[in-house]
Design brief:
The chain is an all-alpha fold. The protein is built from seven helices and no strands. The mean pLDDT is 90.
Length: 101
Amino acid sequence: MNRKLFGEIVHQARMTRGLTLEELAEKAGSSKGYFSGIENGKVNPPSMAFVQRLAKRLKLPEEELLLLAFVAKAPKAVRGFPAFVEFAEKVTAACREKKMI
């Protein structure tokens, strides 16, 4: 689980809604470059408040998107803990179940 998965979900949702990077950036109050970085896994997922706004704009389940952002932002050392790996797998499974990925 990494920030690339979060970016892929944002990209998929944006494309499904027929939005350009510019349109999404304008609706979410950010820049095209920032969203490009998110979609390409080059920047960490945004803050909790921003993820909530993004979930609403993209009509994605807020809870799953927040959890996915949390997992993606976890420090590398934490990502190796068995309990965290199990948690990340559950979050990913929930996203797949809701056809986010």
